[in-house]
Design goal:
- It comes from Streptomyces cellulosae.
- The protein is α+β, with helices and mostly antiparallel strands and 815 residues long.
- Helix content is 32%, strand content 26%.
- A six-stranded antiparallel beta sheet has the order 3-2-1-6-5-4.
- Helix 2 (14-27) packs parallel to helix 6 (148-160), helix 9 (222-229) packs across helix 10 and helix 11 packs antiparallel against helix 15 (428-465).
- It is elongated, with a radius of gyration of 37 Å.
């Protein structure tokens, strides 16, 4: 390659010549274990790529698998581990010999995957000429993509990839010195004896579990190490990091891990293979590679803006021996501070405390011209001790101040301030660490900002779909809690409701729609509304749930729902429970005894159109606590749902139901949840005054109205009401007459006395409510009944009941 450089130097750019020289130096050592990765790194240096990877055919000859990579983790660029060699992806096209150059619009048009990144990328796929074929894939996040010089350098890199990565030691073969082989599906690991010596383990005592080795690492290094050995966080090619292991005596020992992920092919698990060596003698006080890798691992799992800030503080403060670090988002012309470390107000300048009064202070950038200039330039700026700065910045770092603009593509995401109290000389390693941290934090901050915005939108929509407040109940107190999932942004499908019903009945409802998506949340809102509507119509519990089931089937959705519906009679202290694939209620009795209700269940809603939902009786004594929850509170990867219900019942039994708010908070606080959770608690106290009730079935005979009046008179006399009964008797006559004349079917008269309040209700089988006439002429023969009822009663109205309606009127009586 050196001859090529000499002969064509006149026709090449300086950058191309430098790239050829760098690649020639790498080619001089063909047996270097990291040769391929070093070649790919030249695409980052000379072509401005954010990611570069080499794909080669797998053992089955059907898949092109990522053998080595450099730069950003592939997941941030929407790049997969494997592509079909027979497909039409850029990787497959390049493997067949055609170079592919795609811009953001081309990628958006081709993408049919949820892996598509939200940032705009340019992609290049170039064929690699060797016996096995292959492809060089490069991704750029610069607005202009790859220019002519970049493309020339990428061509040189593709030519330099002369052969695939060295073959990995096969399973069952002897491991090289310092080698290991980890099965990703089982966590079983084979290691060379000298690796066990580095960990301080005797080969005869090692059990072959990777957890044994991880348990010997320093806890703060464990997250970055887990990002390599856990399958959920794998990114091929990014397999070098340093970590510490605990020693029986003395400080921890630094080790360096190098490895690669190997796809096992059909029916075989993926394996992580590589070497572990002693890095104690190679490390300086600040090692940019190891610390940047740990920061990248932490930022890859950082979800919120606060998470990003905490990861940056953890990565910078100790190695830089800084006294304070502030991370701020840039919104328009204002800086919104998200993390202050240390958090105490007295650790920060007086102007910050006096002018920034919000919980996380914000201020216009123009109030700090020095900071504004640094943001315009877009590169880290360092001021030594004694630099003439405005007070708002000088007091942050009297011994030295570093301002790190946080770039994200073609915009500025925010700024990070690092300050020292004593004079501090920032060395070359520290400058490298600051620059790398700024680039990583900027990208992570933009992702986290989008997450926070979507999370707030999700929370607002979720709150709108759930009850804003619970109603006051006669003879009971209810509280409810909802917590969204701790993982991801998607909406949950859990819901709860408390529905007041006539005759001092209350319906407690809790349910869960399958999945976590906007569709699940929308369906949850529909099911909650449907159940409330069917309940208010007066249907019995099994009919309410059956109607909701048929509605969900008719919606023709792919989702199903579970539900537990409990109809409580507050007067009698009894309840009927209906379960549709949901968890049963937990009852805590007044003596502290707790039981999981034996309530027979039906299938989930939306599965079978015609099915039975049996009703199971519950008996409630005053002081009984009824607890309803969803599976997110009781189910975990470590235990099945039955064990979770037993644990939940024990926690309910150990609680003090005198104040339900702390009880609900305590139950939720003990949950290790990855799903959203709904919790509904009701303490049944019993009603202070139980109503007096009597009913009469009105037969369709000529003397029906007279029978109804005599029944009413006898009942009121037995209750001690003997005065001012003419108005109630007139209302009975009119309501019963209307029901007999204008409807068919059964008619029922109900009388209820609560204190001095008498309620007369007539139910019939017609759903049509009576209409009060606006005017009545002298010649009219009807229409005066409702006007008479309105005139003699304190209030009147109608209610839907199962299959019909109920017309009622209330009176104040003395007894």
């Amino acid at each position: 390659m050196a001859n090529v450089v000499g002969e064509g130097a006149a026709g090449r750019s300086t950058r191309t010549l430098r790239a050829e020289g760098a690649l020639s130096a790498i080619a001089a050592d063909p047996q270097a274990p990291d040769r391929l990765r070093r070649v790919l790194e030249q695409a980052l240096v000379f072509a401005g790529a954010a990611f570069a990877g080499f794909y080669t055919l797998g053992e089955d000859g059907e898949l092109l698998c990522l053998a080595e990579a450099a730069g950003l983790p592939r997941t941030l660029c929407g790049v997969r581990d494997c592509y079909s060699a027979a497909g039409h992806t850029p990787v497959a096209e390049a493997h067949r010999g055609r170079a592919v150059w795609l811009g953001p619009r081309d990628l958006a048009a081709q993408s049919q995957s949820r892996r598509t990144p939200r940032r705009e990328f340019h992609l290049a796929a170039l064929p690699v000429r060797h016996d096995g074929g292959g492809c060089l894939l490069a991704v750029s996040e610069r607005p202009g993509g790859f220019d002519d010089g970049d493309r020339a350098c990428l061509g040189l890199v593709a030519d330099a990839v002369a052969f695939p990565a060295p073959p990995v030691t096969a399973e069952g073969a002897d491991l090289p010195p310092g080698g290991f082989s980890l099965a990703m599906d089982t966590g079983r690991v084979r290691v060379h004896d000298d690796v066990l010596e580095l960990f301080g383990l005797d080969p005869d005592d090692f059990d072959g579990r990777v957890e044994t080795l991880l348990g010997l690492t320093v806890p703060e290094d464990l997250p970055s190490l887990m990002s390599v050995v856990e399958a959920d966080h794998m990114t091929i090619g990014d397999r070098e990091l340093e970590f510490r292991v605990l020693q029986p005596d003395g400080p921890p020992r630094w080790l360096r891990l190098r490895g690669r992920l190997e796809h096992g092919g059909e029916g075989r698990p993926a394996r992580l293979v590589g070497t572990v060596t002693d890095a104690s003698k190679l490390r300086a006080d600040v090692t940019d590679v190891a610390r940047v890798q740990r920061l990248a691992a932490a930022l890859s799992t950082a979800v919120t803006v606060r998470d990003v800030g905490k990861a940056v503080v953890a990565a910078l403060r100790r190695p830089l021996r800084a006294d304070r670090i502030a991370l701020a988002e840039l919104e328009s012309d204002r800086l919104v501070v998200t993390v202050l470390d240390p958090p105490e107000p007295e650790a920060w300048p007086e102007v910050w405390r006096s002018e920034w009064r919000t919980e996380w202070p914000d201020a216009p950038v123009r109030t700090m011209p020095t900071l504004a200039a640094a943001l315009r330039e877009g590169r880290p700026t360092i001021w030594p001790a004694g630099s003439p700065l405005e007070p708002a910045l000088a007091e942050v770092g009297p011994g030295g101040l570093a301002v790190l603009p946080l770039p994200a593509g073609n915009r500025m995401a925010g700024a990070c301030l690092v300050g020292w109290d004593a004079p501090h000389d920032i060395g070359a390693d520290e400058r490298t660490l600051l620059t790398a941290a700024a680039n990583l934090a900027g990208q992570a901050l933009m992702r986290a900002r989008a997450f926070d915005a979507e999370h707030e939108l999700v929370g607002m929509l979720q709150r709108q779909l759930l009850p804003r407040r619970l109603p006051r109940l006669p003879g009971a107190v209810a509280v409810a809690r909802y917590l969204p999932s701790t993982a991801g942004l998607e909406l949950g499908g859990d819901w709860y409701d408390v529905i007041p019903l006539p005759d001092n009945h209350v319906a407690l409802v809790i349910g869960d729609v399958q999945g976590h998506s906007a569709g699940a949340a929308t369906l949850m809102g529909q099911m909650r509304t449907a159940l409330r509507a069917y309940a208010v119509e007066g249907h019995p519990p099994d009919v309410v749930v059956s109607h909701a089931n048929r509605l969900l089937v008719d919606l023709e959705t792919d989702l199903f729902a579970t539900c537990c519906y409990v109809d409580v009679d507050m007067e009698a202290g009894s309840a009927w429970c209906v379960r549709a694939g949901h968890l049963p209620p937990v009852l805590r009795h007044p003596d502290g005894r707790t039981e999981i209700a034996e309530a027979e269940g039906g299938p989930p809603l939306g599965v079978v159109r015609q099915c039975d939902f049996p009703m199971s009786p519950l008996r409630l004594q005053p002081g009984t606590l009824v607890a309803l929850t969803t599976d997110g509170l009781v189910e975990s990867p470590d235990s099945d749902i039955d064990a979770g219900m037993e644990r939940f019942a024990r926690q309910v039994g150990a609680s003090d139901p005198a104040d339900l708010g702390p009880v609900a908070d305590a139950l939720l606080g003990k949950a290790l949840r990855s799903d959203d959770v709904a919790l509904l608690l009701m303490r049944y106290d019993g009603m202070d005054t139980r109503p007096l009730r009597e009913s009469w079935t009105v037969w369709r005979v000529p003397q029906a109205v007279g029978h109804a009046r005599r029944f009413t008179r006898r009942t009121l006399r037995s209750w001690g009401v003997t005065e001012e009964i003419d108005a109630p008797l007139l209302a009975v006559s009119e309501l019963v007459t209307n029901a007999l004349v204008h409807t068919d079917g059964k008619v029922r008269l109900d009388l209820t006395l609560i204190g001095d309040r008498l309620r007369i209700a007539v139910a019939d089988s017609s759903p049509r409510s009576p209409v009060k006439p606006t005017s009545i002429g002298w010649e009219a023969t009807g229409g005066r009944g409702i006007l008479l009822v309105e005139a003699v009663s304190a209030a009147w109205g109608t209610l839907p009941v199962s299959g019909g309606k109920q017309v009622w009127a209330e009176f104040t009586v003395r007894h």
